[in-house]
Amino acid sequence: MPYLIADEQPEAPAGARFRAALARPDILKLPGAHNGQAALQAKAAGFGALYLSGAAMTASMGLPDLGIITVDEVAFFIRQIARASGLPLLVDGDTGYGEALNVMHMVRVFEEAGAGAVHLEDQLLPKKCGHLNDKKLASASDMAAKVAAAARAARHLVVIARTDAAASEGIEGAVARAKLYVEAGADAIFPEALTSVGMFKEVRARLPGVKLLANMTEFGRTPALTAQEFQELGYDMVIWPVSSLRVANKAQAKLYATLARDGATTAMIPEMQTRAELYDMIGLNAFEALDRSIARSVVPDWQG
């Protein structure tokens, strides 16, 4: 039954549930979910927490990931994912949408929308994907001020500080920044765009006791590793940020090409989610049962 109308909704706030999941001994696996439907499918596959990527959000809107979207636009995505799945959600907060006061506003908006955690990055606007070139960084002290603001505003939200410094300042600079961010109140550190297993090992060794997040994005600078391999390296969380959107976009492109070529979708039918599967996933009949004036829908006996 959908979370929205579940008989037993979680009483604990999303941040508390995210912390509880993070405290478990196994690495916390956070697949990207770019909308409510993806969240439902990830939950059905057995995942207990999710990630919302800024790159996936903007791409789904037909925009590049350059820090263009607003707090309220992100909150729209948070609400649909949290409401659909009921799972604790880590949200990409980009650079915080401004300075300290803007960061505090972001934290409260995200909490109210249903987020369990947020990560902030130490880039300057216009920010770039962490795996691209020539990223411009804020000063470590300015970023620490944002982290402190986020920690102060959070009632239950988990605050994760991302540093993109490895590319320009090396591990030495990334670790120094990470220590400052932890002192400012970060609950965990996200060292972005590490390019070797050795770098992951070094960051882990130099930040003892600090919770660490790994990014396993495809087509980036990080070598392909499994969740188990990241766990063996000592990491506490791993995200696959844009994977769901990449697969969905590829499938849609194939559909449109087929329709343009054939004037029909017939060749794509075997690759489609059926009407019955869709209705089951979104809980159509469960919603209908809430209002006795709505007749229970019956899936047509369709022959393709």
Structural class: alpha/beta
Whole-Å distance between the termini?
29 Å
> Class in CATH?
Alpha Beta
Helix content: 40-55%
Which outline best applies?
A: globular
Strand content: 5-15%
Give the uncertain stretches in residue-range form. none
**What is the level-2 CATH architecture name?**
Alpha-Beta Barrel
- What is Rg? 20 Å
The total tally of domains equals: 1
Question: H/E order of the elements?
Answer: HEHEHHEHEHEHEHEHEHHH
Tell me the CATH topology. TIM Barrel
Number of helices: 12
Number of strands: 8
- The CATH H-level superfamily is Phosphoenolpyruvate-binding domains
Name the average pLDDT: 94
Layout of SSEs?
Elements: H1 14-23, E1 28-31, H2 36-44, E2 50-52, H3 54-60, H4 71-85, E3 89-92, H5 100-113, E4 117-121, H6 140-153, E5 158-163, H7 166-184, E6 188-191, H8 197-206, E7 211-215, H9 227-232, E8 237-240, H10 243-262, H11 275-282, H12 284-288
Parallel strand pairs: 1-8, 2-3, 3-4, 4-5, 5-6, 6-7, 7-8
